[in-house]
Write a structure and sequence with these properties.
By secondary structure, this protein is an all-alpha fold. The protein is 72% helix and 0% strand. The protein has helices at residues 3-8, 32-51, 56-70, 73-86, 92-111, 114-138. The protein starts with a helix and ends with a helix.
Length: 139
């Protein structure tokens, strides 16, 4: 079923109409060594941030990626939001935030959590507003 068919409410053919799974993060299982390495790297990043070493937004971005790999989505969101606030640009943090927000929205929807749905929709709206601001500043 094409975009216009959905827009106009036309039914799709049975072969093209499929149920798409909710967007989930592609988090692969980490073995103990990988988990330990990621955890120790997060600790190193926190020390670097406390000492004021390196580019803060890059360290927050890396920490966000590591938290995602470790399965701590809330911490990943916090780190990516901080990175994007410090260095507003399209890139890894922006893309991952959109994915994380959609994942949390799907989880809230599946749980029937209306407040959660509203909260994550607001976050997505804020991220889209940031996107508009980035485009205005760059063009």
């Amino acid at each position: 079923m094409g975009f216009l068919d959905r827009l106009l409410g036309r039914p799709g053919s049975p072969s093209t109409t499929t149920t798409k799974p909710t967007p989930e993060l592609d988090v692969t299982e980490l073995d103990d060594a990988e988990r330990e390495a990621a955890t120790s790297r997060v600790a190193e990043i926190q020390q670097s941030l406390a000492a004021g070493e390196g580019e803060s937004w890059e360290l927050h971005q890396e920490a966000g990626i590591l938290h995602e790999r470790l399965g701590d989505l809330d911490a990943a969101i916090t780190e990516h939001e901080t990175a994007l606030a410090e260095h507003t640009q399209y890139g890894e943090s922006y893309n991952r935030l959109m994915t994380l927000y959609n994942t949390k929205l799907s989880q809230s929807s599946a749980a029937g959590d209306g407040e959660g749905i509203n909260a994550w929709m607001s976050k997505i709206d804020e991220l889209l507003a940031t996107s508009k601001r980035i485009m205005r500043e760059n063009y």
